């Protein structure tokens, strides 16, 4: 990885940019990292957090050598939206047992995209629950296997028992434009919610 | 107190951080941007090798999560090292844009939308 230490695109002497983040959630293997990679201006980066350092109580540090082998991985990407504003996309850890990580991740997020694989929609139920309970705005993006979408949006909405008003989009996580449109749909939802009622 | 034994167990995983486990972490979220102070303070103690690596990586503004990924260290460890550097005046930290559900920032949202539209 020679030469990979060029971390930021902002020229030297420029002030630090403002930063915001969006979460890309959904079940294990649903295409979260693929989506992050499709729209990110950098190859997705990965951070790994040993479970023993990731928020467990001191009492839980017994038998630490064993537990250190377990890490929670998070992939993320970046989009410079303007000279002074950078958007980060964080793929949430897919396995349910790592959910304590989600609280930290969700803190300060603009909103979330919940990716759904229609062949096993139940794998994304937990993510939908999480954002609903915490009042974090989200959109559903159905990631078509090989880009194909055998089911209409209404069927997906019903299968997921979605509340009224949650947008459902069909997407291909491998396609940049498709992922960009999903993110724009999320921002549009946030703007619509923020705009004063007329 | 009788706490000697449990304290010993705690120290090992934090060898890099001198045993500290509770820095002022609130200063450093995943998307807090850190930048090396230029010039570096003359009075500050000599930085350790890991500190020096961080300073090199944040010569230009960089987010905490990116630093951790590029250093191949857990975020929790990087944050502790960043606390040292902040205390020594060797870096500045810019917190992320505050997000509140009650008073959303329309200008910010529009800016993000415009930026995505240019992708």
Task: Summarize it.
The complex is a heterodimer of chains A (198) and B (119). With 198 residues, chain A is α/β, with parallel strands linked by helices.
Q: How many individual helices of chain B?
A: 5
Name of the CATH class of chain B: Mainly Alpha
Largest sheet of chain A: 7 strands, mixed
CATH homologous superfamily (4th level) name of chain B: Winged helix-like DNA-binding domain superfamily/Winged helix DNA-binding domain
Give the CATH class of chain A: Alpha Beta
Shape of chain A: globular
Mean pLDDT of chain A: 83
Helix content of chain B: 40-55%
Number of domains of chain A: 1
- Dominant shape of chain B: elongated
Strand content of chain B: 5-15%
Q: Give the CATH H-level superfamily of chain A.
A: P-loop containing nucleotide triphosphate hydrolases
Major beta-sheet overview of chain B: 3 strands, antiparallel
What Rg of chain A do the Cα atoms give?
18 Å
Keywords (chain A): GTP-binding, Hydrolase, Nucleotide-binding
Family (chain A): Belongs to the GPN-loop GTPase family.
Organism (chain A): Streptomyces griseomycini
GO molecular function (chain A): GTP binding; hydrolase activity
Could you explain how this protein is built, in words?
The complex is a heterodimer of chains A (198) and B (119). Helices cover 28% and strands 25% of the residues of chain A. Chain A is built from 6 helices and 7 strands. In chain A, helix 1 packs across helix 6. The N and C termini of chain A lie far apart (54 Å). With 119 residues, chain B is mainly alpha-helical. Chain B has a single domain, classed as Winged helix-like DNA-binding domain superfamily/Winged helix DNA-binding domain (Arc Repressor Mutant, subunit A, Orthogonal Bundle), CATH 1.10.10. Chain B has 5 helices and 3 strands, in the order αβαβααβα. Chain B has a 3-stranded antiparallel β-sheet with strand order 2-1-3. In chain B, helix 3 packs across helix 4. Chain B starts with a helix and ends with a helix. At the A-B interface, strand 1, strand 2, strand 3, strand 4 and helix 6 of A face helix 1, strand 1, strand 2, helix 3 and helix 4 of B.
